[in-house]
């Protein structure tokens, strides 16, 4: 089904970027920093790195690096470019994302997440390997991209031979240029077609339901040749609900039309395809394949807004929401929240309908809410996220004062202070704000501070073998599988793994039993475990243990003594500790927030709840739930710093808990 090589080359040559190839290369030769602006789909991501390579930038053994704010995008575009160049992925074209490196010594064009490039500065302060960096999708303003901007601003004067190319959809480009002292902006000319915007007349109460109605109406009242449908949803859950619901509805209509009782379970004229980050790469790539004689309906997250371009879209349905990471300094945690999109986002999404011809965009929100409720631009991540990890990394790179570091937009002072406080409580910073020995070691792990601390303390306490497993298991998506039609059966299977005092130890137990069963896929299936997640945990474990060996951090086993493991879990989570208050309610020690143990926890229903617990995550739904919970001794908590909270942190009841 894949297009032939000749066909692909023809497609390349028809892209707007290709038409200005020599002008692009000239302006890059003439300047150290260039900002490139172009409509989505003009060929920035797939062509620029190839142009640079063809112009000889790799000849002296240097690499061309291209950053993406999203893992899915890094994988997907690398795969596409490898196909265009005519090589296997990992050969001349490769990618690197956290815990997954598909590059080799032959690699010349390396796609990666911006977070990976940021980490590379730890081992190579001058970034000697590269002579070109393309910072793609810079308009997304991810935290790592913004931090990289600051680092590059300092680096460029000592690396005169390094080219920096910043690409952006139309928004923000001026500010990037100003940030780099008036760097030239080059706009790739491109034609877009008019898109008719249709607002909802009434506010929509259930956007999944409304989407299903709108999509089936569009499908049934427009001939298939008129074009495909792209739907924007917030995440995996509502994407799956939309796909299922749409299919059911169309089957229902079909069977009524044919005047039959038995419903056709197949739809012959439509292909409904989801795309979100947890999907395996091969399934993700399906959205690009043509569907002859069928209408393609792609149901996507924000990834399709600018990162990936799907050709042939005529209709867009925009639910008007996005899932964003939002930091709540009072709770001290990031959480994913569904929030209204910005006006800029809404316009990008609509624009996807006008790439190949005139299109229509259906917005499931009213015109009033567009003007009254939406921000003009999405708030950059740096202003709405926990900065602990970033501050730790920057300290390690020698940046002491984030307020004096060059940034396009500064973070709120409150989140700097609260992140510094977090780092101090885990012991990464001393009383003078300098990195401790522990902090330096923590900074070299690609993990959140609480997890890297657990690992390091475990090494000192003689249980790093076990902690490696726990940390790896915490770094993958859900391992327990709970199919809707077999909930009871799967819940029962899960309890067989329970270690009553700890979900962390339950995860350790799952992994140990999987290993004892020769890492079998069939065993996972029988026990309602996600084989893919466990496999991934295994691969992460290999990489983390290699990193520990490289740093001469000892890997030792505590055998059957699991209390020592709980102590180490406590050492990293002292920040996330709670005390029992009432029958089954907890209060967070740091700020008195009321919490409940999630029903999926091993502690739930195991008799009396323990007086003190630490937890890995908090879910903000109708209740505040804590998940992945471990019982601890209050004495351990005092040893690991929680006592300081009561002494030094006053809880102000008036403080705003909102966004
Ligand atoms: P930009 O970065 O300017 O938004 P891209 O370089 O991503 O543009 O896309 C250029 C063209 O390549 C688009 O027409 C897009 O549809 C096509 N394309 C990108 N990835 C794939 C893929 N995996 N399969 C097929 N076509 C693709
Ligand atoms: Mg792109």
TrEMBL record:
GO terms for biological process: generation of catalytic spliceosome for second transesterification step; RNA exon ligation; snRNA modification. GO terms for molecular function: 3'-5' RNA helicase activity; ATP binding; hydrolase activity; RNA binding; second spliceosomal transesterification activity. Belongs to the DEAD box helicase family. DEAH subfamily. PRP16 sub-subfamily. GO terms for cellular component: U2-type catalytic step 2 spliceosome. The chain holds residues 374 to 1032 of 1102 of the full protein. Its EC number is 3.6.4.13. Keywords: ATP-binding, Helicase, Hydrolase, mRNA processing, mRNA splicing, Nucleotide-binding, Nucleus. It catalyses: ATP + H2O = ADP + phosphate + H(+). This is Pre-mRNA-splicing factor ATP-dependent RNA helicase PRP16. Residues 25-189 form the Helicase ATP-binding domain. It comes from the Eukaryota. Residues 216-398 form the Helicase C-terminal domain. Its main location: nucleus. It is found in: Nucleus.
């Amino acid at each position: 089904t894949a297009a032939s090589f000749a066909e692909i080359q023809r497609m390349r040559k028809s892209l707007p970027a290709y038409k200005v190839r020599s002008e692009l290369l000239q302006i890059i030769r003439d300047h150290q920093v260039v900002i490139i602006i172009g409509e989505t789909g003009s060929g920035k991501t797939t062509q620029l790195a190839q142009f640079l390579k063809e112009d000889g930038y790799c000849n002296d053994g240097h690499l061309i690096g291209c950053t993406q704010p999203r893992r899915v995008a890094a994988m997907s575009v690398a795969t596409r470019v490898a196909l265009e160049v005519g090589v296997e992925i990992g050969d001349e074209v490769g990618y690197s994302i956290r815990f997954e490196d598909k590059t080799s010594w032959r690699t010349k064009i390396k796609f990666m997440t911006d977070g990976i490039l940021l980490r590379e500065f730890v081992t190579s302060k001058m970034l000697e390997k590269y002579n070109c960096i393309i910072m793609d999708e810079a308009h997304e303003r991810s935290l790592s991209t913004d931090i990289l901007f600051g680092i590059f601003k300092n680096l460029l004067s000592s690396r005169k031979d390094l080219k920096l190319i910043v690409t952006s959809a139309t928004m923000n480009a001026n500010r990037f240029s100003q940030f780099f002292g008036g760097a030239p902006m080059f706009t790739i000319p491109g034609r877009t077609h008019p898109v008719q915007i249709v607002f909802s007349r009434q506010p929509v109460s259930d956007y999944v339901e409304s989407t299903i109605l709108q999509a089936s109406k569009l499908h049934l009242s427009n001939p298939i040749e008129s074009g495909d449908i792209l739907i924007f949803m917030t995440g995996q859950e509502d994407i799956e609900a939309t796909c299922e619901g749409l299919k059911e509805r169309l089957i229902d209509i079909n069977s009524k039309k044919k005047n039959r009782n038995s419903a056709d379970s197949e739809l012959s004229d439509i292909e409904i395809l989801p795309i979100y980050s947890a999907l395996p790469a091969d399934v993700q790539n399906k959205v690009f394949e043509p569907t002859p004689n069928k209408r393609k309906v792609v149901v996507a997250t924000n990834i399709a807004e600018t990162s990936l371009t799907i050709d042939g879209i005529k209709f867009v349905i925009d639910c008007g929401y996005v899932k964003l990471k939002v930091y709540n300094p009072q709770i001290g945690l990031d959480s994913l929240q569904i929030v209204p999109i910005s006006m800029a986002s809404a316009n990008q999404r609509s624009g996807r309908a006008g790439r190949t011809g005139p299109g229509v965009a259906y917005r499931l929100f009213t015109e009033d809410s567009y003007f009254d409720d939406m921000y003009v631009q999405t708030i950059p991540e740096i202003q709405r996220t926990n900065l602990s990890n970033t501050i730790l990394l920057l300290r390690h790179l020698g940046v002491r004062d984030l307020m004096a570091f060059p940034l396009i937009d500064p973070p709120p002072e409150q989140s700097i202070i609260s992140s510094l406080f977090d780092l101090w409580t885990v012991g990464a910073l001393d009383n003078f704000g300098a990195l401790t020995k522990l902090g330096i070691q923590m900074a070299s792990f690609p993990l959140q501070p609480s997890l890297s601390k657990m690992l390091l303390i475990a090494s000192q306490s003689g249980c790093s073998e076990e902690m490696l497993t726990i940390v790896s298991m915490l770094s993958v998506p859900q391992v327990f599988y709970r199919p809707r039609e077999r909930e009871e059966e799967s819940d029962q299977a899960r309890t067989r793994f329970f270690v009553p005092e700890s979900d962390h130890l339950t995860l350790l137990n799952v992994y140990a039993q999987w290993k004892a069963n020769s890492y079998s896929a069939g065993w996972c299936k029988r026990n309602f475990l996600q084989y893919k997640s466990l496999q991934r945990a295994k691969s992460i474990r290999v990489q983390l243990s290699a990193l520990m060996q490289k740093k001469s951090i000892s890997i030792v086993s505590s055998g059957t003594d699991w209390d020592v493991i709980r102590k180490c879990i406590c050492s990293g989570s002292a920040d996330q500790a709670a005390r029992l208050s009432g029958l089954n309610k907890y209060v967070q020690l740091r700020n008195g927030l009321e919490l409940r143990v999630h029903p999926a926890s091993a502690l739930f229903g195991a008799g009396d709840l323990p007086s003190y617990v630490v937890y890995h995550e908090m879910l903000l739904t109708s209740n505040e739930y804590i998940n992945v919970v471990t019982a601890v001794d209050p004495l351990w908590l005092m040893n690991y710093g929680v006592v300081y909270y009561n002494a030094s942190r006053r809880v102000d009841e008036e403080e705003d808990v909102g966004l």
